Amino acid sequence: MRSKSVRQLQSLLSQWTSITHIHCHGSEEAGVLGAIEQALDRLKEEDEFSLYAVVNCLLVNGSLRVLIDELLQQLDVKRHGKVETVEALAVFLKTHIFSEKERVKLTIVLDQAQALSSLPTSTVKSLLSLPKSISLACPTSSQEPLIRFVTRSELPWNWIHMLNTVSWPISIGFESPTEEECIDLLAEVLESDGVQRRVIEYVVRAVFFECRDANRILEIIRLVCSKYTEKHGDINELKNLKLLPVLEALNETDCFYQDENERDEPINLPLCSKYLLIASFCASHNPPATDRRYFVKFHGKEKRSDARERRAELSAEQREADAKAADLQRIKCIYLALTELYPVKAIDMNVDINAQVCALFYVFRNS
Question: For the Origin recognition complex subunit 5 C-terminal domain, which residue ranges apply (predicted)?
């Protein structure tokens, strides 16, 4: 259950031990990042010297310098020189964040941690060893700096490509909230708005088959209350709730919902992402035996007999049309072959494919 994972996370974050890396994984509906921020906010209220910063690794685009810039921007720390390496970051944090008088406790949250695979493995290892680096950078300090990492991804740490070579952290898996957990959570949030629990129960049970994201259900409840208030008055005074406003609110909060008068704006993908989509399609819709077409110089230009043509057509008709899972390494090879077969002028197509895969998955989940 999600509540058990939340309690485990709160227990780990409330104490400063030798654990310097916690990895939380779960779907978007599980509200993992929200649970992390809520636990850290509570810790910040109890201890004024507790700080935390959230960095979205998708925005980093495989650059350590950008990651450091995002981190220092979230910490609201001004700098006069360049901070572009982990060693320089360790010295900077020791000088500007940690001091002799106040023992600051810093938690760095790396959201969308699967995008860290676009960084070199040695860089990721060095970054996650930052707590030790700060101690080595300033050995004369009387107090050891308190710093730790919390990473968040939909995937477990050992499922993230390349990161499974880095030492494994303490992992906490979050399940999507159950119907009752969702009702309890929303009742606590909407208590200040004066929305009765029976209204929350009705809406949650009406939409739970379609949506399990607590944030979206919260938006649906507020839309339902607004629609009832405009037409009938206070929603808490109604004895019989109707389903139509709930369905209308469900549609209006759907990511695919749009007004009839609004035109759908296309998503503009980078050219390398388009090549990667084509490579993924080729790999998932064709058996590996056909990949030689991308690597043999004169493949397809040789003359074929009528019997061979008929066999090729029959084989194509019998082939299953559904896509099948393809190996990532195979997709990479086809991508590189396509960039060689169909080169693009003035554009460098030699990019980090892992980062492009993460970006395409994020576009898929949010479009």
Answer: 269-360
Say yes or no: 16 and 133 in one domain.
yes
Token output for 326:
């393809």
- DSSP per-residue letters across 124-170: HHHHHTHHHHHHHH-TT-SS--EEEEEEEESS-GGGSTTGGGSPP-E
Task: Residue 359: give the domain boundaries.
Answer: 271-365
Strands (E), the chain: 21-25, 50-56, 105-111, 146-153, 170-173
Phi/psi class of residue 216: alpha, beta or left (left: φ > 0; alpha: ψ in -120 to 50)? Answer: alpha
| pTM, two decimal places | 0.61
Distance CA 56, CA 61 (A): 10
Whether 352 and 284 map to the same domain: the answer is yes
User: For the segment 212-243, what is each residue's pLDDT rounded down to a tens digit?
Assistant: 788 888 888 888 788 777 776 666 665 555 55
Maximum alpha-carbon separation in the chain: 87
Task: Looking at the structure, tell me whether residues 42 and 139 fall in a common domain.
Answer: yes
User: How many domains does one find in the chain?
Assistant: 3
* Contact criterion met (CB below 8 Å) for 228 and 245: yes
Q: What is the pLDDT of residues 115-162, one digit of tens each?
A: 888 888 888 888 988 888 777 766 555 667 789 999 999 888 888 866
Bridge-based pairing state of the strands 21-25 and 146-153: parallel
State whether residue 84 is helix, strand or coil. Answer: coil
Task: Please identify, among 129, 144, 173, the residue that sits at the C-terminal boundary of a domain.
Answer: 173
pLDDT of 40: 92
Mean pLDDT of 260-288: 73
pLDDT at 263 over 50: no
Q: Are residues 31 and 160 located together in one domain of the fold? A: yes
Q: What is the DSSP letter of 172?
A: E
Q: How would residue 178 be classed by pLDDT, with cut points 50, 70 and 90?
A: confident
